[in-house]
Design goal:
alpha+beta, eight-stranded antiparallel beta sheet, 4 helices
Length: about 140
């Protein structure tokens, strides 16, 4: 395994659990990558004040996934992330079920970006229900 913290000069070969946990907790806005083999890695990064992106790749671009886990939305919440990275380091496979993974879209020649969930139909449906309730209230 190799641990890389973005904007830090040297990656750590064969990191310990303590080194990985410290790197994840102290990364802040920088990215953290734990690579088990070429093209096999777990990566977490935050762009500015944006949401944290946690992704893994299992070799090929077709095996590239990300999570939308709400527990990662708060910049102050790192324990889920620490647990996922620790499990990946230990190669115990629990990390695969600690969060819900979704395939990434890979734009032509671009960086992977997480496939956004289509939530607008839910909001439209809720708005229609709200309008119907208001109209029913006004009529009665």
């Amino acid at each position: 395994m190799r641990l890389t913290v973005m904007d830090v000069d040297q990656p750590i070969e064969g990191p310990t659990v303590a080194q990985v946990q410290r790197a994840v907790r102290e990364a802040g806005g920088r990215g953290v990558v734990l690579e088990s083999a070429e093209g096999h890695y777990l990566r977490a990064a935050r762009e500015g004040e944006g949401p944290l992106i946690l992704e893994y790749r299992d070799g090929s671009p077709a095996r590239h996934f990300a999570t939308y886990d709400y527990r990662l939305a708060d910049p102050g919440t790192t324990e889920v992330l620490v647990d996922v990275f620790t499990s990946y380091l230990n190669q115990d496979q629990r990390w695969r079920t600690m969060v819900e993974w979704h395939p990434l879209d890979l734009p032509d020649g671009g960086e992977p970006r997480a496939r956004q969930r289509r939530v607008w139909p839910i909001w439209v449906a809720l708005a229609l229900v709200l309008v119907a309730l208001v109209v029913a209230y006004l009529i009665s």
